[in-house]
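Design review, sub-item: ligand-bound model
Attendees: FS, YL, KQ
YL presented the inputs for the magnesium ion complex:
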Amino acid sequence: MNIKKYLLNEKVIISLFSVLISLVIAAIVMIVIGKNPLVAYAALFYGAFGTKEAIIDNIMKASPLILTGLAVGFGFRAGLFNIGANGQVIIGALLSAYVGTLVGAYPFFLSIPLVMIAGMLGGAAWAAIAGWLKAYRGAHEVITTIMLNYVATFIANYVVNGPFQAPGGVPKSPSIAYSAQFPNIMSVGATSLSTIIFVSLAAIVVIYVIIQRTTIGYEVKAVGFNPYAAEYGGISIGKNVVLAMAISGALAGLAGTTQVVGVYGRYFGALSGSMGFDGITIALIGQNDPIGIALAAFLISSIRTGSNQMQIAGVPKDLVVIIQGIIIFLVAANRIIKTIRIRKRKEAEA
Amino acid sequence: MEKVDYSKYAVVMKGITKRFPGVLANDHVDLFVKKGEIHAIVGENGAGKTTLMSQLYGLIRPDEGKIYINGVEKQIRNPNDAIEAKIGMVHQHFMLVDRLSVVENIVLGQEPVKGPFFDLGRARKEIRELSKKFGLLVDPDAIIEDLPVGMQQRVEIIKVLYRGAEILILDEPTAVLTPQETNELFEILKNLQKQGRTIILITHKLNEVMAITESVTVMRLGKVTGVVKTAETNPNQLANMMVGREVLLTVEKEKAHPGEEILQVKNLVVKENRGIEAVKGLSLSVKKGEIVGIAGVAGNGQTELTEAITGLRRVESGKIIFKGEDITNYSPKRRREMGMGHIPEDRLKHGLIKLFPVYYNFILGEHDNSKFSDGIFLKIEEIKRFSEELVKRFDVRPPKIDLLGMNLSGGNQQKVIVAREIAFNPMLMVVSQPTRGLDVGAIEFIHKTLISMRDKGIGILLVSMELEEIFSLSDRILAIYEGRIMGETTPDKTTPEEVGLMMAGHKLEDIRQEA
Ligand SMILES: Nc1ncnc2c1ncn2[C@@H]1O[C@H](COP(=O)(O)OP(=O)(O)OP(=O)(O)O)[C@@H](O)[C@H]1O
Ligand SMILES: [Mg+2]
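KQ shared the predicted structure:
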């Protein structure tokens, strides 16, 4: 890939601008509330990258966010807004945990693929329901995926408080077989760097290749850009809507799976957190580009990881939420930035 | 430095240069438009006409050059500046909001208010006055999507006048109009001229240039190649200046040698979007090696007929038989695989993916063919090689296969579609308005190509609103009116007048009985 071309791409510039401007606005807010932004950002940076623990924590936070970001981004490519990544994360995690408890007798090279396939299939099937409803019943995916989020949450609550509960009365599943767990690369104190980061990195490459190089990617993009022309070209819209949702859901399911096999070793209630929704933010900032999404995931994980240190330095942690909000606003409203840039150019000419 | 007096010109564009990445769209273009004249700009597809006008209207900014309005130099940075300078533009593709009414569309962006409230009453009155003054009759409360194209165009013109335009730019206004609507438009333009307006008209139709303009600027490859008075030129000379060579304005073809029937349509009934029957029990057939032309005024079921044949629209009843097989319920994909090509009427809706590069657009429909895909991966190198070839063979300009579809000029977008469909080697080609928006050279080329396909034994169903095109290409002519065929004839046994009568709803046998 031509790096220079990539960096000069308008989309990249928009995202970078948005991040910069949001940092500036947050700095102004800090000055208004009487804090020194330089101190705060230094703390933020130190909190995210200053120690080994911080870096590990950062990477482990980014890892599932890359996957949910890719999930939402892939949906966008087909013109679909998958708000249901959270539900797909839950179903994927649940299913992989279940299969994880069954594969104790198998060697890792069988049990790990089995668990991952289970998690991806779970997420894919869950998302495909919304895809099918959209393609053949005309139900909008925003509505159905939100509803499916609730259903997934309730199912998960039920099973980890009943049929699939570990002894002891806590809402969590039994632990998965040792052979299905991903090994750690290193541990520092209580934080461990798991090999699951490689799953996320591999997913970036796979999705990049699917989008850029495959017939499936071609069809999905065609449907997303212009469904009429796609249909004219013999591309089945229904099939591709279901397929794109399924691939999106598989990625979200994989995010849930990595938490089971690499972080907790089991399913438990709050595992999904907000990673499904964060995926939307990340896909927007990353502009649906796999590499952009990876960078955006690291951006979000960094400001989150660093925010504690910032709090210690006396600046409210909630500021990172503001920063995140402004970035999204600016990316979504990229016209604003385009206009500013055009003005600038004109002023330069004048 | 010489100081020229430009005050008798409404518009002077001097030394305009505009570069796009890799394309010199305008190369030191000079344009002089006298006050109160109708001035035509003609030129090949991609010559830079739309680009030039977009700079006059402030949609894009020139890299070099100056613009003088009524003799005064003006900086036109955006359409607001243009409106302030009393310039208005009606675009190649309309920019109306479908769901809003005529008044609402016209006042959009300049909504009249009374205190805190929207004052449509006043706007309605002003619009009525404008309509009357210029003979632009249209119901202010009609919803845009219910109006025929010709009416929508009037709305665009009124919108421009409402904003006080003294100089009107019209970019290929007649490409989508019926001959009747075109005549009405010309009446309106002459009226506007009488009231002192200046009009710049972009068109590919040289007879229109001859009919209503005073002078013509000819462009070619981004440069001006000639400025002439209409009274001192003729279509052949204009075509020559545009294309840089002799152009055949009429088609030469041998007699057809039709083979067996390849397409049969039997008692077809198809509904349009609002659920009303648009094709009402229509039957026709196409043989291998012949061109069957469907003549008709827009909106008489042609769109629904071609969409039904190609599988884009559901059939209510009746049958479609292709190569002896009943394909009535086949998917578009299956029909393609059986060898049915389609040049669609609406190129931006069906024919082209604007955000795909040209080389992706060239394989639309064949992207999963083993030639371009091994089942999983696209054979990008092969696709690019194939595209380079098509771009050369069909003279797509600029010949850059990684340009996005939306960055091609209108006519070159059409060439991409036609090239793609012809390259698939279909056995039957359903062709709708194949030369809409094309320059004379490209029309000549497409016509020749269609004839040579016919001579190779391909069956062609041609739908066109241009009677001339129907007459010069067809071996058999069918006239359609309100979803029914009014009669069948051949070009040598009929006249445009007779076909015109059929298009107006008279059955052929009735016409001939009366005569
Ligand atoms: N945004 C853009 N980016 C790159 N190239 C462009 C862009 N807009 C126009 N062009 C190129 O500039 C040239 C002139 O285009 P323009 O639309 O002005 O042609 P035109 O004379 O109006 O043609 P047509 O008769 O087909 O409408 C074409 O080669 C076109 O591909
Ligand atoms: Mg044009």
